[in-house]
């Protein structure tokens, strides 16, 4: 009996905390609504101040929140409603005699035209009232957040606007049905917003995003006007993750969502592997794992949670003056990649031809080190770094590598690099290392033009990776720490900065390189982490 009483008490306390948390959340949404709709929640009633030909002047303007395209009902009082016993005036009875549409807005007045009228003529002094705006509340975009928070936000906004009495809010089901029918993505363009507005005859649409930091959620609301075909207002609010309701949803989500789990750890290989890439480099159409030692390239395959040796390429030989970095490129667009590596201060390509791997020198790249292969405007580029500390972007066309443009670096920059549109501004950033001594690096992010955008706080190892690990359209930056705190870290872009979303447990060997690929052939990407000491190596494979 005592146990039941205790459980009931715990339940009551929990529910009271959640209710209090919901009230705080509702209060925050009230403020967001007030800010976002400030122009629409101002004075909505006024009078006809002047009539001139077909122009009707209203005593409401920008200061009253009036916008071009707003519609007004013209009302004329025709009788007083009185209490038959006491004679007390209960109100007025009005005729709607016309509908006006605003065509020009000034600070203190606006100019409208009649779009619908009765037999009665308009008069100066007639009362006007802004008609209810038809509005749709879209679900806000959110990355790595529980759908409960997204739904709570949408429902709170709908309820809030309905209470205001100045909007006709269409159902969220009607919106979602149309979006599914049109096969639109979560992130909607302005043209797509206008299309939705036209299809449902809406005046306004609310959309936005939810981001998260370590201690806060950022909710960005956007108000789109179909009349003006433009975004008319944007507001950002924050809410603490300590809010009981928000914290409850986040904890539930965390327990239900797996982080990157360790799929398997390979056996110890009796080699010091230096670098790691994943690609299909033969005609088998599966992904191989390619690693290098000083004297050979080793090819592994993933089978039944083990990495098995498939073969080796003995024509590879790295001197102490060569970079051990490996890059891969499918220059023939046949789904079979070639390896590019530096040997004897020259660049060589290793490609599968008929039944063996052929080594060919790539001309024009003496003392240039391969760094990455990237796609820019649908074209593939091999990025190299020369002895003058310049990044050279070389356009790849089948077996030709044409030097296209350069980017000057500082002497200590560019040992390793990656590229990708981390902040989703449709421009790819260059992520590169900047050596700070004692085996540690800063991670710097530049624009393609060479302008420094940001520096990741802290010091890291040399390997960097930019990839869409979760296949959600948002790129992750993968880096690693060194020595005792030997971890892999994953960062995501949120609210104008990189936020750490995951870190591995400390690893027992020094991290040498990072790579991704679908080695399990299950249509998901695995994260591969190469670790090595002076004599042995092993690989951890993580999966979301």
Q: Which structural class best describes the helix and strand composition?
A: alpha+beta
CATH architecture classification of the largest domain = 7 Propeller
Number of helices: 5
Per CATH, what is the topology of the largest domain? Methylamine Dehydrogenase, Chain H
Helicity range:
10-25%
Q: Give unreliable regions as ranges.
A: 1-18
The CATH class of the largest domain, by name, is: Mainly Beta
CATH superfamily of the largest domain: YVTN repeat-like/Quinoprotein amine dehydrogenase
Q: Which overall shape is indicated by the principal axes computed on the Cα atoms?
A: elongated
Beta-strand percent range: over 45%
Largest sheet: 6 strands, antiparallel, barrel
Number of domains: 4
Q: Provide the gyration radius in Å.
A: 32 Å
Mean pLDDT: 87
| Total DSSP E strands | 36
Distance between the termini: 44 Å
Strand order in space, largest sheet: 1-2-5-4-3-6
Could you state the oligomeric state of the chains shown? single chain
